[in-house]
Amino acid sequence: MAIRIEGLAALVTGGGSGLGEGAARALAEAGARVAVLDRSAEGAARVAGEIGGLALPCDITDEGAVETALGEAEKAHGAARILVNAAGIAHVAYTLRGDAPMPLEDFRRVVEVNLVGAFNVIRLAAWAMKRAEPLDADGARGVVVTVGSVAGFDGSIGSAGYTASKAGIHGLTLGLAREFSRFGIRVAGIAPGSFDTPMIRDNYADTTSPWLEATPFPKRLGYPSEFGALVREIVENPMINGETVRLDGGIRMPWF
Fold this sequence. Notes:
Blueprint: E1 9-13, H1 18-29, E2 33-38, H2 41-51, E3 54-57, H3 63-77, E4 80-85, E5 96-97, E6 100-101, H4 104-130, E7 142-147, H5 151-154, H6 160-180, E8 185-192, H7 198-203, H8 208-213, H9 224-236, E9 244-247
Helix pairs in contact: 1-9, 3-4, 4-6
């Protein structure tokens, strides 16, 4: 039986722009009460204001900040049953470049945000889901949607930290799905290809063309609304669990 989204409380990290915004809008359209978490207070306020949600400026790598944000969301909307982990950063640089290797801190920062930060939010949100009452006869208590990348499967030259962090997300998804199953919490992931987001526009403007050439169909950047549609399907379909779905137009990342 499909999970009914209407009335459920949802958390969306990175919800102030890009894929997170697409997810926040899709869930709000389905009737969820959405808390928009984003390090950009302006972005969170804009999206939350437009969808009737709650804006929560938050750094996902900060334990205290996340605990505070989740507490505020629960006070406003009740126990969250949906978590979408869309917050992330990119760092474009070759590991071996110029006259020195990449600074270790550059790699560490991307992994800290994309992988450690995601886990930080998941562990806290899932702990609250675990203590909530079941939603249906199956004993479902909640759904976690992770956001990886095709880079985590195909490898991406010039972004070692991003590629490693997203590969970690894919591994984390199945591991947590198995662990959380006893509590009725599903964990499933999306591995997007090239989407029209600030991350792509800011970091990969010069490499958009090769990516599109490597995409069988459609030969364009994906829309955040298309990402949001898949988030909604994952939440509503109880048999989607422990899997990461590629959403990429068939791309296999080129070497460039």
